[in-house]
Write a structure and sequence with these properties.
With about 220 residues, the chain is of the alpha/beta class. It has one domain: P-loop containing nucleotide triphosphate hydrolases (Rossmann fold, 3-Layer(aba) Sandwich). It has eight helices and five strands. A five-stranded parallel sheet has the order 2-3-1-4-5, sandwiched between helices. The chain is globular. It binds thymidine-5'-phosphate (TMP). Thymidine-5'-phosphate (TMP) binds next to helix 4.
């Protein structure tokens, strides 16, 4: 499925400032007059938002790892069909807060579910589309978790032990090493403005070289 747009994703453990950086990047695109869509996973559609509530509710502590995996997958399938693919086809830049790497990092490295199954499911949900560029915001687990707790932002996954989040962080680093062309690691321990400047610089370079996104 060839398309004209550019698909950008943000990834990282809890409390790395992904949403803030997603917003700042979209502000930049707006100022530059670049048509874009800002979106998020899980969620991004009315159906996905309902799934997000189920996934993140602290009342759902009984959720099994497989149920969790399938709910993230269901939210993604809807999101790809309803929002991401139409936007890319119309030539827009899509800026998505979390995507398939989150499933590999959290359900694969974190929960220990079968990686082959996760990759297969990701392929089914996405129909094969991949981010053109991914910003992995990286910080120490402790710093990220305490940042979210200070902001009073606690959901079901954040209640997991620190060890779980360490596995997720390690997973992200491995993904970035395996796919170093696509995944750019950004130190999110720096000041917000510095992080944003770095992201914009990397993206500007990337867009100069991009002749249109591919499958
Ligand atoms: P957040 O986007 O507000 O950080 O919340 C989403 C939570 O869901 C976060 O803990 C990461 C988790 N998540 C997964 O475990 N797997 C996934 O595929 C996605 C998209 C998110």
């Amino acid at each position: 499925m060839p398309y004209e747009g550019i698909f950008i994703t943000f990834e990282g453990i809890e409390g790395t400032g992904k949403s803030t950086q997603t917003d700042l990047l979209c502000e930049h695109l707006f100022k530059e007059g670049i048509g874009h869509v800002r979106t998020v996973e899980p969620g991004g559609t009315p159906i996905g938002d309902e799934i997000r509530q189920i996934l993140l509710s602290v009342d759902n502590k009984a959720m099994s790892a497989r149920t969790e995996l399938l709910l993230y997958a269901a939210s993604r399938a809807q999101h790809v069909d309803e929002v991401i693919v139409p936007a890319l086809r119309s030539g827009k830049v899509v800026v998505c807060d979390r995507f398939t790497d989150s499933t590999v990092a959290y359900q694969g490295y974190g929960r220990g579910l079968d990686m082959e199954l996760i990759h297969k499911l990701n392929d089914i949900c996405t129909g094969g589309i991949k981010p053109d560029i991914t910003f992995l915001l990286d910080t120490e687990v402790e710093a990220g978790l305490s940042r979210n707790r200070t902001a009073n932002k606690v959901d079901r996954l954040e209640l997991e032990a620190e060890e779980f989040h360490q596995k997720v962080r390690k997973g992200y680093i491995e993904i970035s090493e395996k796919e170093s062309d696509r995944v750019r690691v950004i130190d999110s321990g720096q000041e917000i403005e510095k992080v944003s400047e770095e992201i914009i610089k990397v993206l500007t370079e990337f867009m100069k070289g991009a002749t249109g996104a591919s499958e």
